Each structure stands twice: as structure tokens, then as C-alpha cells.
Amino acid sequence: MPHRLLRFGLSRKHPEPRMFTRHENLKPAYDVVIIGAGGHGLACAYYLARDHGIRNVAVLERGYLGGGNTGRNTTIIRSNYLTPEGVKFYDESVRLWQDLAVDFDLNLFYSTRGHFTLAHTDSAMRTMRWRAEVNKHFGVRSEAVDAAFVKRAIPMMDMQCAGHAPIVGALFHEPGAIARHDAVAWGYGRGADRRGVEIHQQCEVTGIRTRGGRVEGVDTTRGPIATQRVLCAVAGFTPRLLDMVGLHTPISIHPLQAMVSEPLKPWLDPIIVSGSLHVYVSQTARGELVMGASLDPYELHSTRSTLEFAEGLASHMIDLFPFLGEVKVNRQWAGLADMTPDFAPIMGTTPLEGFFLDAGWGTWGFKAMPVCGKTMSHTVATGRNHALIEGFAIDRFEHYRLTGEKGAASVGH
Ligand SMILES: Cc1cc2nc3c(=O)[nH]c(=O)nc-3n(C[C@H](O)[C@H](O)[C@H](O)COP(=O)(O)OP(=O)(O)OC[C@H]3O[C@@H](n4cnc5c(N)ncnc54)[C@H](O)[C@@H]3O)c2cc1C
User: Fold this and answer.
1) What is the dihedral of CA 70, 72, 73, 75, to 10 degrees?
2) Ligand 1 centre from 102 Cα, in Å?
3) pLDDT for 383-413, tens place per residue?
4) Parallel/antiparallel/unpaired status of strands 271-274 and 289-295
5) b/e map of 226-255 (b: 16 or more CB within 10 Å)?
6) Does the CB atom of residue 73 touch ligand 1 within 6 A?
7) What is the C-alpha separation between 233 and 32, in angstroms, rounded?
8) How far is the CA of 17 from the centre of ligand 1 (A)?
9) Is 112 helix (H, G, I), strand (E, B) or coil?
10) Which atom, in ligand 1's list, is nearest to the CA of 361?
11) In the predicted structure, residue 328 carries a pLDDT above the cut 80
């Protein structure tokens, strides 16, 4: 019998250390309340405590830590966006990802794979060149490559896509990576917890109290809390929370589904995305293929899975990789994507003093967790938007100053 099992299992003197402290009761007041224990809320709590010395913080979660989109995504990390605002922002995130496992003392299974966005038409190829040039301008390693380059990197791919969508080239983004999503939430959660932040699971915010245009506190299923600063980081629940304070954004909620295959021997190193076929896929260290497609085309607040999605995605996967015909799908699931019209997030201060927003992360917010934590903690601590998030302010819709990322964010994640 393993020594560890004997030591911890049979002796009360050596309890297995818990990942997080369990707090029975809420305090009557906190300096900051963060709504949502997904990667975004937890990252902000971590950097508030670590970089700004603000530790009297409560993170409130209606379900369980990482149980929202953080634990449901397909973990693609990249910075090959289209707008200068987007490229600079996501590039900083990719930089922060490099040191995260050491910061947390926790293996995040961060794995740099290279990311191909396939082009099936000449006009798609033109967009790839455009993205490559914007990326290079900001020092991000991306290049437009031809079909022969793609074939060499992914020899198993049918370059004709069953004859109806031949691949003419791609955008190749060398830093493209994947990581273990729940470990990221645990890492930020544990790091925040060790610095004095309280994480309260099974604690839903049911109301936000305001007076004279500023925040005074929140009501929860476990009682009221007084606070002058609230960060709302609730992804698919954003419209419900904003209704509580009378703020409105053009966010709409669409289900986003994904599925995973049985484990296979390693054969796919890079991450593959095809906007035309509505497919993205990577292979995990365990050998499973993690696959996703576009949003469900209707607004819905539900995480049910549909056969239509599985059939559509499987048929496009087989167009690309015909030998997968007999492979089994092990699991399928969905998350609630908070979509903005310009496919960029909404971040920063709001017209309500003391109320901060980190939302509109739709299908692309996993990669941004480190940079969101950094920039939102700065914004909450100082009351001023961090320079890197100026392009994502809530008032851009009012002034028609959109940050159009659709060409880089709609399927690629
Ligand atoms: C299928 C799928 C695939 C994706 N793939 C990628 C990808 O490859 N790359 C990428 O970068 N992004 C991807 N994303 C997007 C990414 O997952 C999200 O943008 C990101 O996880 C958002 O994190 P969050 O912390 O803001 O939200 P969440 O993780 O959803 O956390 C919000 C939390 O708020 C809680 N909450 C809600 N209301 C309340 C309340 N009233 N009181 C208390 N708590 C509340 C919820 O329970 C939830 O746990 C994908 C998303 C999905 C669904």
C-alpha cells in the first residue's frame, strides 16, 4: 500500500491539505466584492491581493468554482487578432501565461502547439495576410503560409476536404497553445485564498444596492454585504446582473457547444481552425480530440447538448480527417457565451460609481484570463481604466467606436 495513503488515510494528525479554505460565514463588509468564481473573477482577486495589497475581498459564486465557461471551454490560447487593441491585449496575456505555472506552483499543462487558421478561398487568404501583417507590426509571430506548408505540418489532413472546400493556405501562429482549464481556476483560486481572499461557493448575488449613483452593497442568498466596489465577472449571466443596476449593453447570450473524442495515439500536434467548415480541434496530452464549432444560431439561456451540433461537427471533422470515421465521441457539453456585436469584450468602469464590468467574453475569454486579472485589478484598485483596456470600454457602443474583431474571433476562439 502506498505510504502516502497510509500516512494521510489512517491518521488524523496528517490531514490532506485542502486547496481552499472553507469560510462558513460572510463578513458584513468587504473592500471589494467579486461576483463570479470563474477564471476572470479569480484572476482579478489574485492580482488585487498580490499586486495591490487589497486582501479584504470576497469572491461570490452561485455554483462551484470554475463551473461556468471556465470549465467548459476548448482552451485555445493565441494572440493573432485583427485590431491593434486586440493584438496588444492578447499578446500581453500570452506573455503572462508563460510564468503562470511557476507563479502558482501548479502544473497547468500549458502546451505550445502552433495554431493554423485554414483558408479555403482566395478572399479568406487575403484576410489571413491582413491578420499576419497586423500581428507582425506588433511583434506577434504569425505568417500567411501556402497549402504545401500546411500539408507538411499536418500530413493526415485531406487538403481537398472531400472535394468541396480545398485548402489554399492558412494563417500560421506559432505561439498558439492549449492549457488545462480547471487548473487555471484552481491556481488563481488557491493563490488568492492564500493571500487572504475569501471564496464563497453556493452563494448567489440576488441584488445590488446603490445610492446616489454609486454602489453600496450586494444582497446574496446568504445575507447582505456592504461594499463600495463590485466587479461583475459572470459571463453568460451578465444581462441578469446588469438588470439589477439598470445598466444595459448589447450583449446577447448564445449556447456554445463542444465535444471530446475517445483517446487516440498522438497524431495532431498543432491546433486547427476552419472558419468555413466551422471547426476547431486540438489533441490533449491524454490523446482526446477536443472539438468545437460555431455558436448555436439562436439566443437561449441553456446548456443542453443537441444532436444537430454533434452531427454537423462530426461531418466537418471527417471532411478534414476522413480516417476519424469510426472514432467515438465520449462527451458533449455547452456553455453560455455572452456575445457582443463587435466580438470584443466590455471591460472597465461603468456609469455607476464603484461598479466594474468584465464581460462580453463570448467564445474567446479563456486565453485572456491572466491579462484580464492584471488589468481589471488595476482598474478596481485605482478607479481608472488600465491603458490596455481602453478599446473595450462600455461607452463604445454609444459612440459607434467599435473594436471589430469578428474576422479573428468568430470561430477561431
Ligand atoms: C464550449 C466553449 C468553448 C470555448 N473555447 C474557448 C477557447 O478555446 N479559447 C478561449 O479563449 N475561450 C473559449 N471560450 C470562452 C471562455 O470559456 C469564456 O470566455 C471564459 O471562460 C469566461 O470566463 P469567466 O470567468 O468570465 O466566466 P465563467 O467561467 O462562466 O464564470 C462566471 C461565474 O459566475 C457565476 N455567477 C453567475 N451569476 C452569478 C450570481 N448571481 N452570483 C454569483 N455567481 C454568479 C457562474 O456560476 C459562473 O461560475 C469557450 C467557451 C465555451 C462555452
Assistant:
1) 70
2) 24
3) 999 999 999 999 999 998 999 998 887 676 6
4) unpaired
5) ebbbbbbbbbbbbbebbebbebebebbbbb
6) yes
7) 13
8) 28
9) strand
10) 19
11) yes
d(CA 34, CA 55): 12
Domains contained in the chain, CATH given: 29-72+182-251+342-409 (3.50.50.60), 111-177+252-339 (3.30.9.10)
Alpha carbon dihedral 336, 23, 96, 39, in 10-degree steps, equals 0
Question: What cell does 325 get?
Answer: 470515421
Helices (H), 61-208: 84-104, 122-137, 147-153, 181-194
Type and span of the H or E element at 241? helix 238-245
264 touches 327 (CB < 8 A): yes
Name the CA radius of gyration of the chain, rounded: 22
Give the chain's largest Cα–Cα span.
68
Residue in the block written with cell 449593453: 249
Of the candidates 81, 70, 192, the residue with the CA atom closest to the CA atom of residue 132: 81
pLDDT in tens, 123-141: 999 999 999 999 999 999 9
Q: Are the beta carbons of 235 and 275 closer than 8 angstroms?
A: no
